[in-house]
Amino acid sequence: MRRGVGRYVRDGYGGARTAARRMAGTASTAGALGNALSALAAGQPAEGGSPLDPALLAGRSVDDIMDAVVEAVRPVDGTQDAEASRAAIRDALAELLTRFPDADLLSLAPEQREFAIERFAAHDVFRRFDLDVGQNIRDRAPNISTGLARLKQARDYVKETVAASFRKLRDAGRALTAGRISEVVRDALRETFEVFEGYAE
Hints:
Helix 3 (24-42) crosses helix 9 and helix 6 (80-99) packs across helix 7 (110-140). By secondary structure, the protein is an all-alpha fold. The protein has nine helices and no strands. The model has no long low-confidence stretch (mean pLDDT 90).
């Protein structure tokens, strides 16, 4: 599986640097997600008409709040990339609530916001991978369950590698602080793709 992901980066994208550049939208969306979650936690008033208006979200269900965050961060534009990112945001928030069962989406702690951003990046990378080669993996598998198992292996590998890249940057003093989220995510993605590419042979 590692070799397959490595070849996807090397042959499909032309290498780690090109892959990271092509995923610039992921870094940008991660920045928007971080800003939205920070504004909610700080109780900052939203712009007029924003789905994140605190008055509109008061008393709403967790699903409603997740939908509002998705809509505010990555509105529908009819592209597959947007749909992948919207699903990745929802996946990240759902995983956040599994990891932190008592978390309040309207008042996330910094650690929780960082987790959501990291997981969004991982889910978005995997969803692009699935869009590009997922059907081929399913078609080449001897049966449906094997195809799904292979995709799960790829997803777990992507998540582990992205998490390791964020840890490496954190250890080097590159935290996901306000105003630097997109930059740090971009560097984490480049680090991730370099790891992937290293397994191409």
